[in-house]
């Protein structure tokens, strides 16, 4: 009977890297994926350009992984974001740094990265089975011993690495299959929820779709808990959609809305939009008033045109209680101050997000207390390893999740190979 050293389930970011690391020192590896190609999610990440990692210093990098990033200290000490860059550059893939440390291939094509990983895996003798769905992980007397495919075929191994991702964007193959196998090994799965996901709002101005498609650059968003405590602030860009808000800043804030809705007995969570994060209320008040004074005969709705996104003006004025055709000399100063405050903290009630399937990343997963942070091995089942999004780790988009997948994949692969060599 053929016994592989290692079976890797899932050929996404984590599984491909685990296969590379495991086979590097000669381990016999079988990589099984349900899809007809490997690296499908990696291929659409970073807008199809593949945001391979992020160049930030490790402490900073970990701050951008709010979902248990600290678990990654040991893994990153062994295979860091710098090592990821070197790894790709050694394969002839030139990388470039963009805003906020985001690293991309110079080709701007995710395919370059995915193909390089697949070629590497192949060149190191990994056996690849695509179109092969794993139905069951086989355990025997406290040891992972192989897998059973949906076709009924059984493969045996000394170690099994589960790298099947989370539940987001299931058309890429990640349908949450790994959680049941982890539970069968005695693991707990923490609550699963959508992160990096567009938010939905019942606000009349959202439901009316009057702002749909409006993009805002360099704004600030703050999420508040029902007691008025600030939960998080992010700045960057966002877009109004027909159901709520989306875009990088909204995505980053989304997990805090999800968690607050779970924690408090409320139906909506308040988010405030700061249209001028670099200015104070006084700055905004004085600047807008000065504008009105310069053109003292012009209706304020027209005065504000160069200052505010035009499509927001009627909404801002009506919320401030201002008539839109008054001119400088008729402006009620108290209401003008209200308007300035509104421009700095425009409230938008959020009652949820799109589903976990539509999220970029899955929050929750295999409980990290039950996984060794150095080796990624299960503390409950010998020879069982986890890596990537199936773990309870999630970061912001910007290369952080892919870094987490690569580093946990690398460490799982190396540790499993070492263990298999000692049997
Ligand atoms: C549109 C989009 C853009 C993104 N952009 C970014 C970004 O810019 N920066 C960032 O850091 N992150 C980004 N992410 C997230 C990032 O891509 C993922 O977190 C990461 O790729 C997860 O890797 P993984 O290997 O754990 O899982 P996946 O890449 O999901 O791979 C899991 C693999 O397992 C296979 N599989 C599943 N079940 C089985 C089974 N039963 N049998 C056999 N095979 C199975 C699947 O077919 C799949 O190939 C993005 C995600 C999406 C959807």
UniProtKB/TrEMBL annotation:
Residues 193-361 form the RsdA/BaiN/AoA(So)-like insert domain. Keywords: FAD, Flavoprotein. It comes from Paenibacillus nuruki. Its cofactor is FAD. Pfam families: HI0933_like, HI0933_like_1st. The keyword Repressor does not apply. InterPro entries: BaiN-like, BaiN-like_dom_sf, FAD/NAD-bd_sf, RsdA/BaiN/AoA(So)-like_dom, RsdA/BaiN/AoA(So)_Rossmann. The keyword Flavoprotein applies. This is Uncharacterized protein. It comes from the Bacteria. PANTHER family: OS12G0638800 PROTEIN. Residues 5-414 form the RsdA/BaiN/AoA(So)-like Rossmann fold-like domain. NCBIfam families: aminoacetone oxidase family FAD-binding enzyme.
């Amino acid at each position: 009977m053929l016994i592989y050293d290692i079976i890797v389930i899932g050929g996404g970011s984590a599984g491909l890297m685990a296969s590379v690391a495991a086979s590097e020192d000669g381990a016999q590896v079988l990589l099984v994926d349900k899809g007809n190609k490997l690296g499908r999610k990696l291929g659409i990440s970073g807008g199809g350009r593949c945001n391979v990692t992020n160049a930030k210093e490790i402490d900073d990098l970990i701050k951008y992984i709010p979902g248990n990033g600290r678990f990654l200290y040991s893994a990153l000490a062994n295979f860091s974001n710098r090592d990821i860059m070197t790894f790709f550059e050694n394969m002839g893939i030139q990388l470039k740094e963009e805003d906020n440390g985001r690293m991309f291939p110079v080709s701007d094509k995710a395919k370059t990265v995915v193909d390089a990983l697949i070629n590497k895996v192949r060149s190191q003798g990994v056996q690849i089975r695509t179109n092969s769905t794993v139905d069951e992980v086989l355990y025997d007397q406290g040891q992972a011993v192989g897998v059973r495919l949906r076709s009924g075929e059984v493969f045996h191994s000394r170690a099994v690495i589960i790298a099947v991702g989370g539940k987001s964007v299931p058309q890429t193959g990640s349908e949450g299959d790994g959680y049941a196998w982890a539970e069968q090994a005695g693991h707990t799965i923490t609550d699963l929820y959508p992160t990096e996901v567009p938010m939905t709002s019942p606000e009349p101005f959202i439901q009316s779709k009057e702002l749909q498609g409006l993009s805002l650059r360099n704004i600030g968003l703050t999420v508040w808990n029902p007691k008025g405590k600030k939960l998080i602030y992010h700045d960057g860009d966002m877009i109004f959609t027909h159901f709520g808000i989306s875009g990088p800043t909204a995505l980053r804030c989304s997990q805090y809305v999800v968690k607050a809705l779970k924690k408090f007995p409320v139906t909506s969570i308040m988010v405030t939009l700061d249209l001028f994060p670099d200015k104070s209320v006084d700055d905004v008040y004085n600047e807008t008033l000065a504008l009105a004074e310069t053109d003292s005969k012009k209706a304020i709705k027209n005065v504000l045109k160069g200052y505010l996104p035009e499509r927001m003006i009627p909404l801002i004025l009506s919320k401030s209680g201002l008539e839109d055709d008054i001119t400088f000399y008729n402006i009620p100063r108290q209401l003008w101050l209200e308007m300035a405050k509104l421009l700095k903290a425009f409230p938008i009630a959020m009652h949820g997000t799109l589903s976990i399937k539509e999220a970029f990343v899955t929050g929750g997963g295999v409980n990290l207390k039950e996984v060794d942070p150095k080796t990624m091995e299960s503390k409950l089942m010998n020879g069982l390893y986890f890596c990537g999004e199936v773990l309870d780790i999630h970061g912001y988009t910007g290369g952080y999740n892919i870094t987490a997948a690569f580093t946990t994949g690398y460490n799982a692969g190396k540790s499993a190979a070492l263990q298999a060599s000692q049997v």
